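Give me the fold.
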Amino acid sequence: MKVLMVNGSPHKEGCTYTALCEVAEVLRSEGIDSEILWIGNKPIGGCIACLKCREKGDCVFDDVVNEFRRKALEADGFIFGTPVHYGAASGNMTAFMDRAFYSELGGNANKAYYMKPAAAVISARRAGTTAAFEQMNKYFEIQEMPVVSSRYWNMVHGTNADEVKQDAEGMYTMRVLGRNMAYMLKAFEAACNAGIALPEKEQAVFTNFIH
């Protein structure tokens, strides 16, 4: 089993990376592989609703989003990490999530995400963590992804990696998250081996305020 993590910070090995590494270490001790994919620090454009993903599956802009989506098909679980920028997920991470999840809604019937456990990890100097946490969780819930919880909301605090390591409760929260993710993945595997089928799929219904 493998958990794919996404580092949505412009700093490759900063606060967000430090938090993800703490989770990765616990997963390793539980016999579960992990990979941290950094989205980089170059601008990531947002979704333009061109709907080309419904034709080809991948996003029309061939960048780290498509790299992630190819890896996502093989992953068993996900953790998405982002710093807080003005009380929300970083701009690049928001654009990344919009395109990664919207294109999946179009082209591949959410097979990369469906019933795969997911969690968000948020890092901040001081505030805005809960708002960013809620923002990130919305992506998982629209894709029928079980959300993995911890002993507290998944957040760490500090202005740099060394300060994050000093956030004792934050590091504890990351370790609990890792153990809970490992447990859920193993429970799902056991259910599959026992012949327990996934929930019955119903034809989706799409409406707006007019029809």
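The CA atoms of residues 46 and 95 lie 4 Å apart.
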